[in-house]
UniProtKB/TrEMBL annotation, chain A:
Residues 1-13 have a biased composition (Basic residues). The gene is Nol7. This is NOL7 protein. Residues 138-200 form the U3 small nucleolar RNA-associated protein NOL7 C-terminal domain. One of its GO terms (cellular component) is nucleolus. Residues 1-36 are annotated as: Disordered. It holds the Pfam family NUC129. One of its GO terms (molecular function) is RNA binding.
From TrEMBL, chain B:
This is UTP4 protein. It holds the Pfam family WD40. The gene is Utp4. GO terms for molecular function: RNA binding. One of its GO terms (biological process) is maturation of SSU-rRNA from tricistronic rRNA transcript (SSU-rRNA, 5.8S rRNA, LSU-rRNA). One of its GO terms (cellular component) is small-subunit processome. The lineage of its organism: Eukaryota, Metazoa, Chordata, Craniata, Vertebrata. InterPro entries: UTP4, WD40/YVTN_repeat-like_dom_sf, WD40_repeat_dom_sf, WD40_rpt. SMART domains: WD40. SUPFAM superfamilies: WD40 repeat-like.
Length: 216, 686
């Protein structure tokens, strides 16, 4: 940037000298060396200051951004007080506490909900590490076990699935495959999976509940 | 005869896993089969293709190759990277050695069964020696880049052919070096895909046969490195190859489910020059055929549609009778459903969970063949998930419906169920005694006071169930002679005095529960037992064998009954003996002591001992004709076998009370829609 500013500086005095040219036939003005030197210096100073201000502005922006990230990160974890309390309490109570915290306290938009989930996971991981048995829909694994062997196996399985079920293999849905016979029979029958049972699940549930309420 | 209200159950969502590998043992006529979920099964062809051993699967176990070596020892290797030996007497894995090359894609045993070679993911080929007690690493052969997908020994054990992606290699066993390297993809123009060599066979005549992902079967002269013949059998991949012992017939399995036979035939009648010709196409499967075997007289194929198909070659079969028929096996030859009669509950066994259902009820009656409306729908009461990666081996529910027991290879679980109105609560019974595991079969006593566990070495454990929630090990019943085989079938008498157990050596032992001593042994018969039951009133043991014979043994008198002798003298009807599937469950009607109810996959039969037996000239399936005859004519034509083929394929049938039957069916199309995707078949006009 310093080089650019210097180049700009060099070009500017030349431009400044050319601009008042009213006609192309006149010879350029006679400018003494001292004047020219001063002009160049002031130009350079101005440009340097502009560059410095520009740099300061960028630094400020960056600083503000970092602070914003730090603030967001801090917001994601539970408040310090709650964490300390939970560390101190026995694991079972900790679970209930965590549940209470997650349902009640944190407010906000989607970010807060995500943070709740993350906090709950953090909480439960803590509890698990303490060695107490707690019920939950998760599996705690050691990262040491999920090592290179698992990666090799996954690569092997991927190879198999791309070559047997990949894009070139001309596979088709079971419904299409088995319904072909029904369509080609002399007596045409419906497709094998004619009714897709996953249509309108909520509506069916609502209807069943409505019927229950009215019949009860 | 009787009118029954039939609960027709079709909500058992069983999806058997696809067949991945097959290994044929010609000496004992046994076929080992491995499925995609890690289950290993052994079929005994001499015992009418009975599935005599099942080793349950494991989440972490994937079997990519299976072979017999060292006599009657079975070895498997998979993507887990280890070579496992299966103990067929104890039905579990006996030892496991890590291959050291990452996931293992293929394994082959040499002609004499003394060495194993494995092909690994990292491109290395390793030799192992089969020693008593396990296997030992011998050495590494030449390693190149590219995973080794298939291997084959030369019949003289001097060379090994290895197929990889785009490349076929031949290695010399003594030096370990690659002596020939053939590019398999060279002959396909303008194609960007790589050519995967799925299967390879080394013939004695220095020809190598390969099958690849372009659907070609190619014959190579390995010493010159040239292609001799190329046959395109299919547009999709040709996945598996097998050659006959005389090396004149090859069977190929493809991705579309079709299998083809190629035969070495003389060019002209009587000429010496022979050529390979594609002779017979078969379409027995709907999904990929990943394993084929060529036995002396039959082509055996296993597909990802979970079917095992045995097709006899007509020119090889001596007697053209029922032995030459096409056999298809989809369902296991064991019971996966148990029924609590009084509580009207059904327990379904899946590989990793159990489901308890209560049957629906109706209060209407109707005529023969009518469908009655349900007043209460069947309810799914409990779903019990098994913890851990092991698959469930056996399960049972007590007749009163308050106890559920199941076992995996290393753990045994007992649960207590309580019903309060419409709610069910389940509690695990703590402090179950540490018995010799696994349990191969579980059976509750008729009054739900004790549980019988079939265990290794022919022994049966008796567990007493205590209220409210406990159990105590009462006794272990052992057979008089030592046997390494495990018990796989149990039968308990209704009065709680007798228990019968069958082990892998096919000997039926009967124990008295009053004195906990061995009572007697049923005379040995040269076939496997497929179902066993003790009559509630007469204490006769009814036995169904794999060759469709039926015997009745009187336990108090320790000899066969008069009716059984009559059946053996007259012989059973020819159509009865020519059934494809085995009888898996026998039960009785307490109100009618002369009735025996049995079923196999395609029929349900009520055997009336008081009626005469049909001879070969009489019609066996005469129910429909009898319905149309008047009463007097009917009496003349009645015979003992009353067979109903309306409910198929049947997984379980039982009598709930004197007028009520339950039939659990699993339509094959319901299974096929839940399998992995099949390959599209383009048909003209669609």
């Amino acid at each position: 940037r310093r080089r650019k500013a210097a180049a700009a500086g060099k070009r500017r005095p030349a431009a400044a000298l050319l601009s008042p040219a009213s006609s192309e036939d006149e010879a350029p003005e006679e400018v003494s060396f001292g004047v020219a030197r001063e002009a160049a210096e002031t130009e350079r100073k101005l440009v340097g200051e502009a560059a410095r201000r520009h740099r300061e502005l960028l630094k400020e922006k960056r600083r503000r951004r970092q602070e914003l990230f730090a603030e967001q990160k801090r917001r994601k974890l539970l408040p310090e007080t709650v964490l300390q309390e939970l560390d101190a309490m026995p694991p079972k109570r900790a679970e209930e506490q965590a549940a209470a915290v997650n349902t009640g306290e944190l407010c906000g938009g989607g970010a807060a909900k995500q943070s709740e989930g993350k906090a709950q996971r953090l909480m439960k991981k803590d509890v698990q590490r303490k060695g107490a048995r707690s019920k939950g829909n998760y599996v705690a694994v050691r990262l040491k076990d999920q090592s290179l062997a698992g990666l090799h196996q996954q690569l092997a399985r991927d190879f198999l699935s791309t070559h047997l079920y990949g894009p070139d293999t001309n596979r088709v849905q079971a419904n299409e495959f088995f319904s072909l016979e029904n369509k080609k029979n002399p007596v045409r029958k419906a497709a094998v999976q004619f009714v897709d049972k996953s249509w309108g699940q909520e509506k069916k549930l609502k209807a069943a509940r409505f019927k229950q309420r009215w019949l009860a | 005869m009787g009118e029954f209200e039939v609960h027709r159950v079709r909500f058992f969502g069983l999806v058997p896993a696809g067949v991945r590998c097959l290994a044929w043992q010609p000496r004992s006529a046994r076929l080992a089969l491995a499925r995609t979920d890690g289950t290993v099964e052994v079929y005994n062809f001499a015992a009418n293709y009975f599935q005599e051993k099942v080793i349950p699967g494991h989440d972490a176990r994937s079997v990519e190759a299976l072979c017999w070596a060292g006599g009657d020892r079975l070895f498997g290797a998979g993507l887990g990277g280890a070579i496992t030996e299966y103990d067929l007497a104890r039905l579990s894995t006996s030892c496991s050695v890590d291959g050291g090359g990452g996931p293992i894609w293929s394994m082959a045993a040499n002609g004499s069964g003394t060495r194993l070679v494995i092909g690994c993911e990292d491109g290395s080929i390793k030799l192992f020696q089969v020693v008593p007690g396990g296997i030992q690493f011998e050495r590494n052969l030449d390693r190149r880049k590219g995973r080794i997908l298939c291997l084959s020994w030369h019949p003289s054990d001097t060379h090994i052919a290895a197929g990889s992606v785009d490349i076929l290699r031949v290695l010399d066993v003594c030096s370990g070096q690659t002596v020939q390297r053939i590019m398999v993809n060279y002959h396909v123009q303008k194609v960007q895909r790589e050519c995967v060599v799925w299967s390879v066979i080394f013939l004695a005549s220095s020809t190598i046969v390969t099958s690849d992902s372009f659907g070609r079967v190619q014959f190579w002269d390995w010493q010159r490195g040239t292609l001799v013949e190329s046959h395109t059998v299919s547009t999709s991949s040709a996945l598996s190859l097998a050659v006959s012992e005389k090396e004149d017939s090859i069977v190929v399995g493809t991705s579309t489910g079709a299998t083809y036979q190629l035969q070495l035939l003389p060019v002209r009648v009587g000429s010496l020059e022979k050529r390979w010709v594609r002779t017979k196409p078969f379409q027995h499967h709907t999904h990929d055929v990943r394993a084929v075997v060529h036995s002396g007289t039959a082509l055996i194929s296993g597909g990802l549609d979970a079917q095992l198909v045995i097709r006899s070659l007509m020119e090889k079969v001596q007697k053209k009778g029922y032995e030459a028929a096409l056999r298809k096996f989809t369902f296991p030859h064991r019971r996966l459903v148990s029924c609590a009669r009084k509580a009207r509950l059904l327990l379904f066994q899946f590989t990793q969970h159990l489901e308890l259902w209560r049957l629906g009820s109706t209060d209407k009656t109707g005529k023969d063949g009518e469908v009655l409306p349900l007043r209460r729908m069947p309810e799914h009461l409990v779903q019990l998930k098994s913890k851990g990666p092991e698959h469930i081996y056996c399960s049972c529910v007590s007749p009163c419906g308050s106890w559920i027991a199941y076992s995996t290879t290393s753990r045994f679980h007992l649960y207590r169920l309580r019903y309060k109105g419409d709610n069910v609560s389940i509690a695990k019974v703590p402090k179950v005694p540490k018995l010799l595991l696994p349990a191969y079969q579980l059976q509750f006593a008729a009054d739900s006071s004790s549980l019988f566990i079939a265990s290794a070495q022919g022994s049966v454990h008796v567990l007493q169930l205590l209220e409210p929630e406990g159990c105590k090990h009462l006794h272990t019943l052992r057979p008089p002679s030592e046997t390494p085989e495990a018990v796989y079938l149990l039968a308990v008498s209704a009065d709680g005095h007798w228990v019968a157990a069958v082990g892998g050596d096919w000997a039926i032992h009967i124990y008295s529960l009053k004195s906990f001593k061995h009572h007697c042994t049923v005379p040995t018969y040269s076939c496997a037992v497929t179902a066993l039951a003790i009559h509630p009133v007469t204490n006769n043991l009814v036995i169904a064998y794999a060759d469709q014979q039926l015997f009745e043994f009187s336990i108090p008198e320790q000899q066969y009954t008069a009716w059984s002798r009559m059946v053996q003298n007259c012989g059973l009807h020819r159509l009865w003996l020519e059934r494809d599937t085995h009888i898996t469950h026998i039960t009785f009607n307490p109100k009618n002591p002369s009735h025996i109810l049995l079923h196999d996959v395609y029929m349900f039969c009520v055997l009336d001992k008081s009626l005469p037996l049909p001879d070969n000239s009489a019609l066996l399936l005469n129910q429909s004709t009898l319905k149309q005859l008047p009463e007097t004519a009917r009496q003349r034509q009645l015979h003992a076998f009353k067979i109903c083929k309306k409910f198929q394929p049947l997984l379980f049938a039982d009598l709930l009370d004197e007028n009520c039957l339950v039939m659990v069916e699993r339509p094959i199309m319901d299974i096929k829609t839940e399998l992995p995707l099949p390959v599209q078949q383009k048909k003209f006009g669609t």
